[in-house]
Each structure stands twice: as structure tokens, then as C-alpha cells.
């Protein structure tokens, strides 16, 4: 008897779905680690198209009763997680602003030091100023 595929359709769809999930995670990691804007955009586009394909496949499998979704998450739990993520984002933004402010302060300090050096270099070794 002739078999049309080497594995049952449902198993193949599960395998593809798992690969799409893994691929979207890897693309997301690539987005967060890319320093080149063009590469970052490319991986963002790949992530988005992979997530769409994964969602379409999940929807199809759900319609064919091939995939049973996990139990629904309580709205309270989602709101709690969302609030924690927002707090983490605020802390991260504050940290970045603080570090950028320190860097700006160091830049000002460097400028002050450079100005001092320039004034010092305009004086001769006897302390006479040529300003």
C-alpha cells in the first residue's frame, strides 16, 4: 500500500508549529542583539511574518480540533504580569536616563578639563599668560 506522507498530518503540523515557535524566539533574540539598524529591521520583519504564520497554523489546527489550547489565564494574572512589566520598563528607563545623565556629566567634565588644559598650555613655564 502506498503511504502519502512519512508521518501523519497532525504530527507534521505539530512539528511545523513547534519549529515556528522556536524560529520566532530565535528571530526575537536576533532583533534584540542586532546593532545594525538594517539587520535589526530584517529580523523584525522575519519575526512578524513568522508569528503571523504560526498564528495562522494554530488557528487552522484549532479549527480542525488538532490543537487544544491550554486553560485560559485569569485576567487578574495577566494584569499582574502587565503591571510588573510596566514597572520593570519604568525602572529600566530611569536607569538609562541616569546613566545618560552621568555620561553627559562626564562629557561636561571632559570639556572643562580640556578648557583648563588649553589655558594651561597658553602659559609659559614662568607662569606668564598669553591670553
Name the features:
single chain, 0% strand, Spore_coat_CotF-like, flat, mainly alpha, 131 residues, Coat F domain-containing protein
Topology of this structure?
Blueprint: H1 9-33, H2 37-63, H3 75-121
Protein name: Coat F domain-containing protein
Biased composition (Low complexity): 84-103
Pfam families: Coat_F
Short description:
The chain is an all-alpha fold.
Description:
The chain has 131 residues and is mostly helical. The protein has a domain of 69 residues. The protein contains 3 helices and no strands. α1 runs antiparallel to α2. It starts with 8 loop residues before the first helix and ends in a 10-residue tail after the last helix. The C terminus is likely disordered.
Terminal CA distance reads 100 Å
Give the low-confidence spans: 123-131
Total beta-strand segments: 0
- Which oligomeric state applies? single chain
Helix run count: 3
Largest sheet at a glance? Answer: none
Helix content: over 70%
Radius of gyration: 29 Å
Sheet-strand content, in percent, reads under 5%
Run of helices and strands? HHH
Please tell me the overall pLDDT: 80
Task: Report the principal-axis shape.
Answer: flat
Computed structural class = mainly alpha
Biased composition (Low complexity): 84-103
Protein name: Coat F domain-containing protein
Organism: Paenibacillus aquistagni
Pfam families: Coat_F
